[in-house]
Amino acid sequence: MTRRLIALFLLIGTVALTACHTVSGAGEDISRGGHAITNSAQKHE
């Protein structure tokens, strides 16, 4: 069970980094997501 869990986390991490190509890209993607949530919240005030 533990091996499967570790394998799952490694797979998710690999996919996330591959999709962003770099750790910097991952930070930018997360930042854009935060800005989108903020903008959406401000529109609905």
Supply database-style keywords:
45 residues; mainly alpha; signal; cell membrane
Tell me, rounded to a whole number, the average pLDDT: 77
Task: Please state roughly what percent of the residues sit in beta strands, choosing from under 5%, 5-15%, 15-25%, 25-35%, 35-45% or over 45%.
Answer: under 5%
Please mark out the parts with pLDDT under 50 across 5 or more consecutive residues, or reply none: none
- Shape, per Cα inertia axes: elongated
Number of strands: 0
- Sheet with the most strands? none
Straight-line N-to-C gap: 46 Å
Radius of gyration: 15 Å
Q: What structural class do you assign from the helix and strand content?
A: mainly alpha
Distinct helical segment count: 2
Structure description:
The chain is mostly helical and 45 residues long. 89% of the residues lie in helices and 0% in strands. It is built from 2 helices and no strands. The radius of gyration is 15 Å and the shape is elongated. The N and C termini lie far apart (46 Å). Pfam families: Entericidin.
